[in-house]
Amino acid sequence: MLEVEGLDLYYGASQALRSVNLTAVKGGITCVLGRNGVGKTSLLRAIAGHLPVRAGKIVWEGKDIRGVPADERARRGIGSVPQGREIFPLLTVEENLRTGFAAVPRALRTIPDEIFELFPVLRDMLRRRGGDLSGGQQQQLAIARALVTRPRLLILDEPTEGIQPSIIKDIERVIRLLAMRGDMAIVLVEQYFEFAKNLADRFLVLERGRVVASGDRAAMASTDVRRFLTV
After folding, report:
1. 183 and 154 Cβ atoms separated by less than 8 Å
2. Between the N and C ends of the chain, which has fewer C-beta atoms within 10 Å?
3. Domain holding 52: CATH number?
């Protein structure tokens, strides 16, 4: 479903990504690993359309979307959960969820019941403001907001960052369930090795904007991957 080929990305004269390749398929979870500042977030933002790329292709469902703006990518089925969650603190939980309606046809502008099956706590907090939620609850809300858009590709940027262990387990369960449905490709950026190892079907490791290791889940268990994550 998603093929990233030879992606180069720059911030001014500084090159952030160098000939990066990535594949994500329906029913699979591709995990991007690496230390801080190696280009992981830049890669996700390029896929979502929030950063322009200098060279390479981003092929989504058979079409190169490199020049397609972010809002159109969302309408084409690309859902994004950014690092830091970026929920609207003064809007209620329900209003935050409804912001996802902009990316779907009018007939689909409802909050799916599945949202509350995956995240039961949100049903009880619909009238609470987003800023009043804990960090873990805000992360659940951010994922739920992306799911309101009915994505066929879901990209998540460090969903475990600053989250308590109990909610990390809940998020792991939800990501696995979404993949098991078989109608969604998932790209996950993570630094927490055990979380990534438990979920990923395939992985790639970035170092200074380059892919320095990649493979399937079995290869990911090797110590070679860990050495790219330790400081």
Report:
1. no
2. C
3. 3.40.50.300
Helix (H) or strand (E) holding 14: strand 14-24
- State how far the Cα of 86 lies from the Cα of 96, in Å rounded to an integer: 10
Q: What is the pTM of this model?
A: 0.93
Structural domain boundaries enclosing 211: 2-84+153-227
Distance, CA of 142 to CA of 229 (rounded, Å): 26
Residue type, 121: V
pLDDT by position in tens, the chain (length 231): 899 999 999 999 999 999 999 999 999 999 999 999 999 999 999 999 999 999 999 999 999 999 999 999 999 999 999 988 899 999 999 999 999 999 999 999 999 999 999 999 999 999 999 999 999 999 999 999 999 999 999 999 999 988 888 899 999 999 999 999 999 999 999 888 888 888 999 999 999 999 999 988 888 776 678 888 865
Any domain includes 202: yes
Report the domain count for the chain: 1
Distances from the Cα of 48 to the Cαs of 75, 118, 150, 217, in angstroms? 11, 24, 15, 25
Could you tell me if 7 and 55 are in contact, meaning their C-beta atoms sit under 8 angstroms apart? yes
Please spell the DSSP secondary structure of 149-170, one letter per residue: T--SEEEEE-TTTT--HHHHHH
